[in-house]
Amino acid sequence: MRFDVVIIGAGAAGLFCAAQAGKRGRKVLVLEHNAQVGRKIIISGGGRCNFTNVNARPENFISQNPHFCKSALARYTPQNFVELVKKYRIEFYEKKLGQLFCRDSSGQIVEMLIDECRRAKVEIRTNCSAKNIFKNDLFEIETDQGKFTCESLVIASGGLSIPQLGATDFGYRIARQFDLKIVETKPALVPLVFQNSFPAKFKSLAGVSLDAAVSVGKTTFCENILFTHRGLSGPAILQISSYLKRGEKISFNLLPTKNAFEILQNSKESRKELGNFLGEILPQRFASAFCETITGSKPLKNYSEKELKAIAEKLHAWQIGFDETEGNRKAEVTLGGVSTDELSSKTMEAKLVKNLYFIGEVVDVTGWLGGYNFQWAWSSGFAAGEFV
Ligand SMILES: Cc1cc2nc3c(=O)[nH]c(=O)nc-3n(C[C@H](O)[C@H](O)[C@H](O)COP(=O)(O)OP(=O)(O)OC[C@H]3O[C@@H](n4cnc5c(N)ncnc54)[C@H](O)[C@@H]3O)c2cc1C
User: Fold this and answer.
1) Which of 96, 182, 271, 372 has the most beta carbons within 10 angstroms of its beta carbon?
2) What is the pLDDT of residues 217-231, one digit of tens each?
3) Any bridge partners for residue 173, and if so which?
4) Ligand 1 atom closest to Cα of 360?
């Protein structure tokens, strides 16, 4: 069973690449070990797939080489994907910050990709797990449905997040087999777990959310944070989790658009308890926990100016350390992956192994939350699809 191109993984990147290569007249086979293709697309964006971000720029991606993604992103842009979505009459809307979602269901994106593959005469085999790769003149792929040979091999097997959806380390294993460097992987866009020493009071706030500016070093995200039973989640936390290094603390500005000292000063004659006062500008349950564990609470008029200053500082720069994340089970993506040093930014081909390509999440290019990761899947899939 000989093909021009075999693609391992029928996720976003693999299916998109297959359709591009098929349109060029290449005989393409896609192997997927799940029974269904595009399972991550199906569950993405709460079932509505945040399929791109109209503002996607190289700055929205994390990689040891921040320039690597530029070429692919420029050659297949969010607008290009939007045109395709429009051609299929899939209704969509911008939720916020340039994030485009399907109005009905993410299944429409999967159907669109399958249709694109069908038109390009791509063969898709599901329930087919790639086990081993051998290379002579051609690549030989050993699977549980027999052996396939091909001239060009594309690894689109994704990252490690959500093993229940079929995530494997296959791509990294193949990279190692061919002596390609891997940038250390770790779960990203992932909820964080409080340290054991963190006041237990905050664990009882599960479900409470508020807007905050969260920072690590020079990186800040200003969005919602959500208390969980074990720690914190919400868009701002998922975003900052990709930047957090072991031992670093996150700084929380709980009143990012206000001047806390000014607000407290203006009410310094008030008999109101601090906890109740803060409950008017922050969720009351959070304000009570914050005062109970961090600042204490007494009538505002009993605070000195120095004390009010210290409270304001805490509200603008509350420092919390986290040792643990919720891991691959809950992470949306994997940070790190096949080093971009090893790949051509134009074609995604390995520099040292002719005709071997890596695309999508398996590569050390990780997008922010908000449609960027799918855009990387489309752009890198397109780049390889033009050359395989
Ligand atoms: C819950 C969740 C929600 C998300 N929401 C969004 C969102 O709204 N917007 C966004 O931009 N990003 C989102 N993401 C991230 C996005 O889904 C991924 O970045 C994207 O799917 C990566 O595409 P990929 O094709 O590289 O990998 P994948 O989509 O993971 O596809 C890889 C495929 O390879 C298959 N595979 C693995 N090993 C083998 C093997 N040995 N043999 C055969 N097949 C194999 C897997 O089963 C899988 O189907 C979300 C992720 C999660 C987990």
Assistant:
1) 372
2) 999 999 999 999 999
3) none
4) 26
Question: Per the structure block, which two tokens stand in for 144?
Answer: 């549980």
- Strands 209-216 and 219-227 turn out to be antiparallel
CB 76 within 8 A of CB 382: yes
Among left, alpha and beta (phi > 0; psi -120 to 50; other), residue 247 is left
* Tokens standing for residue 384: 């390889």
For residue 88, give the DSSP letter.
Answer: T
Domains present along the chain, CATH in parentheses = 2-187+332-385 (3.50.50.60), 192-325 (2.40.30.10)
The angle subtended at Cα 53 by Cα 51 and Cα 58, nearest 5°, is: 120
- Walk across the sheet containing 92-94 and list its strands: 50-53, 99-102, 92-94
What SS3 class is residue 56? coil
Average pLDDT, the chain: 97
Q: Are 357 and 332 in contact (CB under 8 A)?
A: no
Angle at alpha carbon of residue 75, lines to 70 and 76, rounded to 5°: 105
Which residue among 373, 378, 379, 382 has the greatest number of ligand 1 atoms within 8 angstroms of its CB, and so is best to mutate?
Answer: 373
- Mutating to test ligand 1, I would choose from 29, 36, 40, 238 the residue with most ligand atoms within 8 A of its C-beta, which is 40
Q: Along the chain (388 residues), what's the average pLDDT of each consecutive run of 10 residues?
A: 97 98 98 98 97 98 98 98 98 97 98 98 98 97 98 98 96 98 98 95 96 97 97 98 95 98 96 96 97 93 96 97 96 98 98 98 98 98 98
Q: What pLDDT score was predicted for residue 88?
A: 98
